[in-house]
Amino acid sequence: MTTKVPVRSVFTPASWGQRMAERGRTAGELAGLLIRNGRWWLLPMLIIMSLTAVLLGVVHVIEYAAPFVYTVF
Amino acid sequence: MLADQSLTRSLVRLVAPIVWRSDRKMASKLAGFAATEAGSALDMLKAAELCDDKKLRRLFFRHAMDEARHAKMFRAHSRLLGKESDLQESEYMRSSATRQNLYQELGLVRFLAFVYQAEKRGEAHFDSLRRHFAGHPSLEKLFEEIGKDERFHVAYSKSLLKRLQDSGREKEVKQAKRSIAVQTAWASWRRAGKRIGNVLSWCVLAITYVVVVPVFALVQRITDRGAAHGWQRRRLPEGSVSEMRRQS
Amino acid sequence: MKILGISAFFHDAAAAIVVDGVIVAAAQEERFSRIKQDASLPVQAVRYCLDEAELSMAEIDYVVFYEKPLRKFERILVSQLRAFPRGLRQFGRAMRTWLGSRLWLKSDICKELGCSSQQLLFSEHHLSHAASAYLCSPFQDAAIVTIDGVGESATTSVFHGFAEEGCPKIDLKLELPYPHSIGLLYSSLTAYLGFRVNEGEYKVMGLSSYGQPKYLEEFASLASVGDDGSLEINPRYFSYHYHATKSFTPALEALLGPSRIPGSPLEYPSGDIDMQRYADVAASLQTFTEEYLLVLMGEAKRQTQSNSLCLAGGVALNSVANRRICEEGPFEHVFVQPAAGDAGGALGAALYASCVLHNDPRPRLSSVALGQSFAPASIEKFLDDCGVKYTKYSDDEELADEVAQRMSVGQVGGWFQGRFEWGPRALGNRSILADPRYASTRDRVNRAIKFREKFRPFAPMVLSEDTHLWFDLGRNRDRLLAPFMCSVMPATAAAKEKLSAVVHVDGTARVQVVGRSSNPRTRRLLQAFKKKTGVGVLLNTSMNLKDEPICASPAEAYGAFVRSDMDFLTLENCLIVKDQI
């Protein structure tokens, strides 16, 4: 029917480097917001949580490689 | 593929007595089947909508109509077996049909390979259930009837793949079959991985909640002026592009 | 300016495109993905909007996201710490969602949509809602009230919309902070009554008509309403701020009785004590909400001194409350954004950037047909290719006559034409239509076509010139709402006698008035039906089956047709009849 996708709307995704830089800016903006609102003391918690998130991300990647990797933990 | 089919049959033989143990369970399973078939109908309809070849379109369309009919049959049998009231919750949770947009995502050849392999598994599954329900007043006939359609779906998708092979796209078809088989297995693997990963991340977060969060909750309690209530007055920032670039 | 608005990641993701102040297209992602209230980034809806506007992403000046994510994250963090140690599950869920993906939505949007971060702007949640209502309304000066569950941190906001040197401005007057939310109170009680949150609120509204507001005293202890229109929730009864899956506490059940198990039977009229209690709780909730909204409107009037009111936010979809606001509230004119829920935020975000930031002309929302359409020739080819038997009508009058004839003998059918509707309601472009005169038709549509609960009412569509014959227009302040089915009207004695399928048990109906300038083909059908039966009214319900989104394409409409007991289906000018296929 009329649902063929014209070339014009095929997107050009941003590169990995650009995305990481953008994430860095977002983290900076979040820190700025918390400092502005007097909640700077939340930053250590967020850093710990982010490290946990990275750890969980790594665990997920390993899980994809071998679902039963948990047995070595 | 044969190994895959016999695995399906053995698995069904093994778990059927547990999964289909009562009328209520049967009704709930059938409602689940109805949702799956309705979802397949939507995917096949989408394929019919998007493809240009008249013959393919007609076959996909017929397949969609078969799946829609199966959904109706499963739903009707589900209602017969389960008391309407008991079933409402499971139906409520499971009766909505979800389309996976397979045709758009896989492209024609891989889509056909997917249909062929999925229908082959489906045929084996329903055939095993037909055997399991031998002598059952309604379900034996139901699975037999649906099995017939599944056989047609296997046959037409196989012949379409063969036609493509004969037209000089042998390598592409073989690749598609392989890639779909690998993809299906990979998806199951990932599902298992994800489940375990979820459990693990819950554990890590729970530990964090108990070990890390209390300190900050305490600081929050000390510094908190209490949750705001009542109307708050705030000036909206000046509407400008630079202000709107901010996420905060 | 060419502005794309998007809303996503909560519920009901959507995209809208505004070019030089004209709304070119607007659609919810669910219509493309077929996942009800799909919350994921609306990639397909964006693609459709760009195609409709014949633009590439590079040609778009700005992409505007409908809220400020970091402010929302801050509110979640703080409320999680306040709830400690009760919120383990919600904390886990929130952190996984936010740290895993939502916090990085800016880079994800750039990646998925292929836009640059320089193109990306962020509006505020309630400001987006306010813009979606005010900038589409015909008013120069208006109070704007936005009410929903929660945005970044506000749950209810009062704005003032006005023009300054020809430019529209929106000024925030007041806002109510989380967790004090009439929207969340309504949703929590929706869960208490055994319905799905964000979806079952319509059912609660329908259910409320079967009960009496016997629990108003109890409701007064759930939340207190200030004279200034503020609301304070009693946290003893609610757990939505710390519990991941349950929004109310055992104290609520001690107050109102045990909650209803989802899926347990609801039949009315009923001698069952519990069933009647559920209806009474629903009635009390509805009355409490209406009374609160009236107080709130009084405050909005005091704050703005305006004669006109614009409403948006999920609570503005409560058509029964809207009628009372029109009839008993202090405003002469009222407008409600038809897509008042979060989907509407996409349009509001785009309109704010277009009209307020860049002074593009304001659009007038005269129709919600802003979605995808399908060329009749492509539909015919599809049907031919698939071997579906159909009759093609080259004359609209003939098609209308045939369909009217079929409905007059009790048949129920799908009516598919033009672009699909923006917002949650089908208004004659993706509708299932039937004769409104017989209650048996209503029961059949509920049971065998929509597969939904028997107690739920159906809405009528009526010729604008006949509205007064069937429905009490009252002070006619809801005339801007009536084309979009955003308000209910009491039925006249004639309607109660003759239109039993569309008059609810409380003697009202959620009317869609079909005017002379809108939707010509549907109007022609209403006229043909009137010629045959003397009734210029039809039962209208959306073309979808239970728990599915409204159909977008002809193939999906055909899918719904064969999976239900519909007797016929029109796809543009083609008529398909069930017993002939």
Task: Provide an overview of this structure.
- Chain A is mainly alpha-helical and 73 residues long.
- Chain A is built from 2 helices and no strands.
- Chain A is flat and about 45 Å long.
- The model of chain A is unreliable at 1-10 (pLDDT under 50).
- Chain B has a domain at 2-172: Up-down Bundle (Ferritin), CATH 1.20.1260.
- Chain B is built from 9 helices and no strands.
- In chain B, helix 6 packs across helix 7.
- The radius of gyration of chain B is 26 Å and the shape is extended.
- Chain C has 3 domains: 2-136 and 340-357, Nucleotidyltransferase, domain 5; 182-333, 2-Layer Sandwich (Nucleotidyltransferase, domain 5); 376-580, DHBP synthase, CATH 3.90.870.20.
- Classes of the chains: A mainly alpha (73), B mainly alpha (248), C alpha/beta (581).
- Chains in contact: A-B, A-C, B-C.
- The interface between B and C is large, with 60 and 73 residues.
- Kindly identify the CATH topology of the domain at 2-172 in chain B: Ferritin
CATH class of the domain at 2-172 in chain B: Mainly Alpha
Order of helices and strands of chain B: HHHHHHHHH
Return the CATH class of the largest domain in chain C.
Answer: Alpha Beta
Enumerate how many helices of chain B there are, as a single number. Answer: 9
Helix content of chain B: over 70%
Largest inter-chain interface? B-C, 60 and 73 residues
CATH architecture of the largest domain in chain C: Alpha-Beta Complex
Number of helices of chain C: 20
Low-confidence stretches of chain C: none
- Write the CATH architecture name of the domain at 2-172 in chain B: Up-down Bundle
Total count of strands of chain B: 0
Q: Beta-strand percentage of chain B?
A: under 5%
Helix content of chain C: 25-40%
Q: Overall pLDDT of chain B, averaged?
A: 84
Distance between the termini of chain C: 49 Å
CATH superfamily of the largest domain in chain C: Carbamoyltransferase, C-terminal domain
